[in-house]
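About this split. The held-out portion is used to measure sequence recovery: a designer receives only the structure tokens and must propose an amino acid at every position. Recovery is the fraction of positions where the proposal matches the reference. Here is one held-out target exactly as it appears in the evaluation file.
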């Protein structure tokens, strides 16, 4: 497991300061040693490794080639400054092995590449050159804890050499992740640094394949704010699209519910991108893509919602000490519905429809997204979009706590919060430092009203199970088929434990409603509207 933090270095001054520092977050930084690295990234001719969410790299080390296979990775948190976790496998080759996995030494890396690539030889995607200044961070006891690397990256694409500078802090011992978070906190506060949420491989692949032009790699330096909105939209969508694909295998396997969660989040964020920029895009030509994206998000969401319900039910059982048998009727209905929804999801992920959706998306991202009649620069568009979202959110927020505010209105408020948060995150590198504080406030609000919506949905399902023995209430409750279902000998009757669970979720709704005004008050106390407008000020300079 590779655990590291990644930042873009935005200026030579910041690079120099980092190269000269002797302490970071209280840890001793050793003298630097220089490395000149050439990485050759490879895949099968039909890109099977990328499709499965992996990157394969060959690096020459002291006359021998080392193959490293890495997953696209996950973030420990969903904030831009999060820490990346990636699975990795390595194997050292002799000169005769080359790109043919069948000739590699027996290893997990060989087995995985052969399995994913169906036994095909690998072909080169691109070369990535790095001039690395590497330093070691040591604990107070003098033990090596992490490697700090300042990388000058060069990649040739479209007959041009493109450059960018990065900082990576990789743990040498996974047990020090808490210490790594302290380092991340200090780096996040430094000027001239911006968190990286994608790997070098993902960005360079996008560049080499023509999906993102040279300005994509310099976006954090601010040049993209002058690009058309179609260019910025493409830049924001690319890492999300790659992130969605990186979690396909885990979602299909179903062993870790967080794989599905992360895949679904990527689709929801992509939908938000289209939602906030639709005024400036050619929505008619993008309609097939948006429709397929909505379908994908719905299929994933149907299963993820049931995962969340089950997780919270398990917590309730543990906290209350309720015997599992008391919720047997619930579990029976849940199992049947979950099997149906998961089978539908797996069929969709295996389908030609989903494959075509990804191909349409790839084709779309090879150039700037088509724009509508309104021609506008990204800087101006994003300023207008964010201010409009802020005003809408404030209007809706003024009604929080009123007796006549419906549960549906609270759900809509959460959607407005989410849209503003995601939009600020999408263009965070273009904004002032105040954006980070605003995002943190919005995240806490989204969590509060998300808990409320989860409880509302749970109550609806519990009432349906108690009244009808089904996961959802029948649309025609008085129909003949419903009466036949009621008399079935296979359905388990509701118990007192199920009634008590319904009462607990209803009480949860009341608690969250009663605390809604206090939760929303944090928005005003933190002066969030001022933070947002101050963060946007750099777009008008």
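Reference sequence for scoring:
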């Amino acid at each position: 497991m590779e655990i590291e933090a990644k930042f873009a270095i935005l200026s030579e001054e910041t690079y120099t300061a980092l190269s000269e520092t002797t302490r970071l977050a209280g840890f001793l930084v050793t003298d630097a040693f220089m490395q000149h690295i050439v990485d050759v990234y490879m895949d099968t001719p039909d890109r099977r490794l990328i499709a499965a969410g992996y990157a394969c790299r060959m690096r020459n080390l002291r006359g021998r080639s080392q193959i490293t296979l890495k997953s696209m990775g996950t973030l420990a948190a969903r904030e831009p400054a999060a820490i990346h976790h990636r699975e990795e496998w390595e194997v050292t080759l002799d000169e005769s092995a080359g790109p043919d996995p069948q000739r590699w030494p027996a290893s997990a890396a060989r087995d995985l590449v052969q399995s994913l690539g169906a036994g095909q030889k690998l072909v080169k995607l691109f070369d990535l050159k790095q001039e690395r200044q590497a330093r070691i961070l040591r604990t107070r006891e003098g033990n090596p804890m992490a490697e700090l690397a300042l990388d000058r990256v060069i990649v040739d694409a479209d007959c041009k050499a493109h450059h960018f500078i990065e900082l990576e802090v990789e743990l040498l011992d996974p047990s020090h992740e808490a210490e790594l978070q302290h380092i991340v906190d200090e780096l996040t506060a430094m000027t001239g640094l911006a968190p990286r949420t994608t790997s070098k491989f993902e960005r360079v692949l996008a560049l080499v394949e023509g999906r993102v032009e040279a300005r994509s790699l310099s976006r954090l330096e601010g040049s993209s704010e002058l690009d058309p909105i179609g260019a910025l939209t493409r830049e924001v969508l690319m890492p999300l699209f790659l992130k969605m694909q990186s979690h396909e295998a885990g979602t299909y396997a179903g062993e870790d519910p967080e794989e599905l969660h992360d895949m679904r989040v990527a689709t929801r964020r992509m939908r938000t991108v289209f939602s906030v920029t639709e005024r400036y895009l050619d929505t008619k030509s993008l309609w097939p893509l948006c429709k397929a994206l909505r379908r994908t998000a719905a299929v994933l969401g149907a299963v993820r919602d049931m995962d969340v319900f089950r997780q919270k039910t398990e917590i309730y059982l543990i906290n209350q000490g309720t015997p599992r048998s008391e919720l047997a009727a619930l579990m029976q209905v849940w199992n049947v519905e979950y099997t149906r929804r998961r089978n539908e999801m797996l069929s969709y992920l295996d389908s030609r429809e989903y494959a075509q959706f990804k191909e349409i998306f790839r084709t779309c991202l090879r150039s700037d997204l088509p724009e509508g009649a309104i021609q506008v620069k990204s800087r101006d568009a994003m300023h207008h979009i964010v201010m409009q979202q802020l005003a809408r959110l404030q209007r809706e927020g003024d009604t929080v706590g009123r007796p006549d505010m419906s549960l549906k209105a609270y759900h809509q408020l959460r959607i407005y919060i989410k849209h503003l948060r995601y939009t600020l995150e999408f263009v965070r590198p273009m904004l002032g430092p105040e954006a980070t504080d605003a995002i943190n406030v919005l995240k806490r609000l989204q969590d509060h009203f998300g808990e409320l919506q989860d409880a509302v949905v749970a109550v609806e399902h519990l009432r349906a199970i108690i009244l009808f023995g089904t996961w959802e209430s029948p649309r025609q409750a008085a129909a003949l088929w419903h009466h036949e279902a009621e008399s079935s000998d296979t359905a388990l009757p509701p118990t007192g434990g199920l009634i008590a669970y319904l009462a607990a979720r209803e009480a949860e709704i009341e608690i969250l409603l009663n605390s809604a005004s206090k939760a929303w008050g944090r928005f005003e106390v933190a002066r969030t509207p001022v933070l947002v407008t101050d963060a946007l000020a750099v777009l008008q300079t």
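Annotator remark: Confidence is low (pLDDT under 50) at residues 74-81, 210-224.
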